[in-house]
């Protein structure tokens, strides 16, 4: 269906789109080869079809240059795609063999890998003469260095996984030539604590903080002495239950004598019970 559809487009293009003069020029196109005139109608027809249907036969160089300038290979995973697209586009330019586009291909690779490729081409010199290298040579060197990089990464991973195996395989080889095998163990350094005493101000601050902490703890410690009544000073009851002072106030005596009796009761022995005191006062 696709072929039939395109064939119908070509027929309509030839019958309806082209003028009689254009059809005549295509059918009678010629070219000169070895001073002889040769008919070139097929080539002219193909070029006209490309011009009218794809639009790439006209001067499309600026678009291709812009595209190649922005073309990048961010990772080596996309290297094959990058190589194919770059080569297919650069060959459409009239200056495709210039050193600029060859160096541009290397610049579009990942930065570290691109520097590695430049180092290979540079060799012992200071600059790279891209005129001596074709695109095929650039591609082959990139492929070889990419494979070498993969092998290096795998080798480093294996060395990290099996460090002891490598030392065992080495055996006494280094000792035979009086070479010490470097050890990865960290050297232990003894710290001198004698000269690292705290400053006097800091020691004073620590002492003050300790005193304040212990003083605060002492405030929460309960007293071991038994609770005593603050009215009569006797142990065994609280002030709300004390009856002695109330009974003294009920006596018909002078205030001075009442105060004296209270003082005597406070200084007297706590062994006397409250009931005895009440009876003696009455």
UniProtKB/TrEMBL annotation:
Name recorded for this polypeptide: Uncharacterized protein LOC104237643
PROSITE patterns: ZF_CCHC
InterPro entries recorded: DUF7746 (IPR056648), Znf_CCHC (IPR001878), Znf_CCHC_sf (IPR036875)
Compositional bias per record (Basic residues), positions renumbered to this chain: 185-197, 205-216
Single annotated GO MF: nucleic acid binding
Coiled coil: none
Gene3D superfamilies for the chain: Zinc finger, CCHC-type
Keyword field contains Iron: no
Taxonomic source organism: Nicotiana sylvestris (Wood tobacco)
One Pfam family cited in the UniProt record for this chain: DUF7746
TM ranges: none
Domain of life (superkingdom): Eukaryota
This protein's UniProt keywords: Metal-binding, Zinc, Zinc-finger
CCHC-type domain span: 229-243
Disordered as annotated region, ranges: 185-216
């Amino acid at each position: 269906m696709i072929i039939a559809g395109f064939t119908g487009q070509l027929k309509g293009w030839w019958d309806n789109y082209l003028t009689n003069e254009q059809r005549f020029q295509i059918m009678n196109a010629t070219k000169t080869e070895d001073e002889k005139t040769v008919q070139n109608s097929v080539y002219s027809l193909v070029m006209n079809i490309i011009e009218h249907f794809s639009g790439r036969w006209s001067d499309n160089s600026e678009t291709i240059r812009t595209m190649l300038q922005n073309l990048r290979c961010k990772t080596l995973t996309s290297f094959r795609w990058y190589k194919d697209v770059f080569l297919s586009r650069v060959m459409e330019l009239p200056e495709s063999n210039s050193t600029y586009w060859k160096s541009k291909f290397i610049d579009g690779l990942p930065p570290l890998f691109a520097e590695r490729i430049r180092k290979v081409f540079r060799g012992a010199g200071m600059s790279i003469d891209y005129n001596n290298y074709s695109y095929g040579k650039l591609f082959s060197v990139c492929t070889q260095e990419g494979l070498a990089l993969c092998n290096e990464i795998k080798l480093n991973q294996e060395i990290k996984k099996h460090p002891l195996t490598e030392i065992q395989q080495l055996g006494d080889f280094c000792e035979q030539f009086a070479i010490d095998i470097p050890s990865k163990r960290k050297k232990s350094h003894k710290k001198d604590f004698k000269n690292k005493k705290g400053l006097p101000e800091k020691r004073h601050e620590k002492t003050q903080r300790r005193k304040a902490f212990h003083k605060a703890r002492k405030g929460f410690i309960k007293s071991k002495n038994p609770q005593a009544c603050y009215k009569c000073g006797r142990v065994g009851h609280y002030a709300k239950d004390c009856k002695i002072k109330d009974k003294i106030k009920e006596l018909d005596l002078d205030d001075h004598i009442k105060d004296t009796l209270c003082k005597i009761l406070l200084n007297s022995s706590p062994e006397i019970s409250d009931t005895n005191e009440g009876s003696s006062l009455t």
